[in-house]
Design brief:
The chain is of the alpha+beta class and 358 residues long. It has 2 domains: 253 residues, Lambda Exonuclease, Chain A (Alpha-Beta Complex); 83 residues, no CATH class. Helices cover 42% and strands 16% of the residues. The chain has a 5-stranded mixed sheet with strand order 3-4-5-6-7, with helices on both faces. Strands 8-9-10 form a 3-stranded antiparallel sheet. The longest helix is centred in the last third of the chain and has 42 residues. The protein starts with 8 loop residues before the first helix and ends in a 6-residue tail after the last strand. The structure holds iron/sulfur cluster. Iron/sulfur cluster binds next to helix 2. The site of iron/sulfur cluster has 14 residues, from helix 2.
């Protein structure tokens, strides 16, 4: 029986994609090479946490963590707002927090660095023009969902004008649409976490598309969507408890760094390799021949059909077979496909049958 850890959204998604990859990461604790786009995302998130901190409003309840003011702290003056960073201060912080690992080249890193400056300056303008009302930034929230421990770091939780909450997630990748906000399971899990940690209703979920400069809003997930998500989380929890770690090859394999340990990618033993390679090559050769024969067969049938039409005959005998030009059987009004040997059985065609009866 496996021990069930507190599940994050990323763990849930990884297990659903491939349980074996989940095991490599979370049981065997194998590490993956750093990636530039993760470093970039981490840096931007850290800057935004600092940038938004001065805007944090007091709340009636503390969920844990230091990025949230309680009413008591606020009353005691410890939560008094301080001035937000100006653009220069923000960029200096950006340089200080920059994570420099995983980039493909110095040029690649510089491209990301310039992109970060652009999108942070734009977002700075946005929040200083229209100051947000967060009650928490980078809030670490936990709960037990029908017996399953789950947690997550919610980028931001804002107070809405009607006294509810908006759950926000920053995205630094490209190509987001409002459909992403409507279907994101990550936002669904965050909704559950926020609802169980705050005494206010969740009124909105949103993705902040930092590259596109848009705020993609969705209503909270309805009960049936949360039930479906709970079902998936339950399947993951059951699989981990039962120690089911079968490899599930698919799209994630392309970026999986554990192929050398995965049975799906196991190498053919050296002693068998040559014989099997010959067989594979012969198979490929035969498929080529099969493709070529198919094309030649169709083209010969088309020529015979055209010739039979030209001569106004329906039967052309050969020494090894008999070509028969079939009558048109297509429905009235349908267009013909001249010479097509197989047009759904309705078009005229020319076929070579077995040797003609003598
Ligand atoms: S290579 Fe594919 S199947 Fe194997 S562990 Fe990685 S993701 Fe899973």
């Amino acid at each position: 029986m496996g021990t069930l850890p507190t599940l994050s959204y990323s763990q849930i998604r990884t297990y659903l994609e491939c349980p074996l990859r989940w095991k490599f990461l979370y049981i065997d604790r194998l590490s993956e090479a750093p990636r530039g786009y993760f470093s970039f995302g981490r840096t931007v998130h850290s800057v935004l946490e600092e940038l938004l901190q001065p805007f944090v409003q007091p709340t009636a309840r503390r969920a844990g963590g230091s990025t949230q003011f309680t009413l008591e702290e606020f009353g005691a003056g410890r939560g008094s707002p301080r001035a937000p960073l100006d653009p220069e201060g923000m960029l200096a912080l950006y340089d200080r927090l920059w994570v420099s690992e995983g980039y493909e080249s110095p040029e690649d890193e510089e491209r990301y660095r310039a992109l970060g400056r652009t999108l942070l300056l734009r977002y700075h303008r946005e929040i200083t023009t229209q100051p947000p009302t967060p009650v928490a930034v980078e809030a670490h929230l936990e709960t037990t969902w029908d017996g399953i421990p789950v947690h997550g770091y919610v980028d931001r939780i804002d107070l809405t004008p009607s006294g509810g909450l908006e759950v926000l997630d920053y995205k630094t990748g490209r190509g987001l649409t409002s459909r992403d906000a409507l279907t994101s399971e990550q936002l669904g899990l965050y909704q559950v976490l926020v609802e169980r940690n705050y005494p206010y209703p969740v009124e909105r979920l949103a993705l902040i598309d930092l590259r596109g400069g848009s705020h993609l809003v969705s209503p909270p997930r309805p009960a049936e969507a949360l039930a479906a998500l709970r079902q998936s989380v339950g399947e993951v929890a059951d699989g981990i408890r039962d120690e089911e770690y079968a490899p599930t090859p698919g799209r994630p394999c392309a970026r999986c760094e554990f192929q050398d340990r995965c049975p799906e990618f196991r190498e053919v033993p050296a002693g068998e390799r040559a014989a099997l390679a010959t067989l594979v090559d012969r198979f490929a050769e035969l498929r080529e021949v099969e493709r070529g024969l198919g094309e030649e067969l169709a083209s010969t049938a088309r020529t015979l059909h055209t010739e039979a039409e030209r001569l106004g005959v329906h039967r052309i005998p050969g020494a090894r077979g008999l070509a028969i030009r079939r009558r048109e059987t297509r429905p009235r009004g349908a267009s013909s496909t001249p010479g097509s040997p197989s047009a759904g059985g309705v078009a005229a065609g020319t076929t070579c049958g077995s040797p003609a009866p003598s």
